[in-house]
Amino acid sequence: MRLTVAALALSMSLPLAAAPMHGQFLPPDEQTLRDGNPEQQQLLQVTDYSVVMGNQRHSNQQPIPVTAPMLLRLKGKTLNKGASLAQVLITFDGESKSLKKPTFDEASKTLTLTYPLNQYRILLDLLRNDTVYVQFLTYANGHIWADLHTGSVRAR
Question: Which pTM value belongs to this model?
């Protein structure tokens, strides 16, 4: 009996399958894609960012393509136990009709996100003026969710 009571007390003190720490910032799940609690959860508070404007020319191809990739590199501190996210690379796509899915590389601890090019100024404005968080969730059914969001901000 004592063992059962101790086990019950211990189980009540342990967290249940963790709901997203910043779940209040998720949009409604109208298609029920976020089935259950996430299997993997990474939450990062952005402390530093840099803008990288590339310029490259592949001279061995005809016609010569000229590209100018642009990315935001975010770094910060993880906010949840067991998280390993160290940096976020955000690339921008001005041509595709669909975006690439978010990917997390465990080896480099890097989350890669792609946003439409027209979101660049919005993201830069958020980074300059607010505390920004990056959230990455994976679910057992294969659904992946990633976002950048601010905390709650008091209206003026």
Answer: 0.77
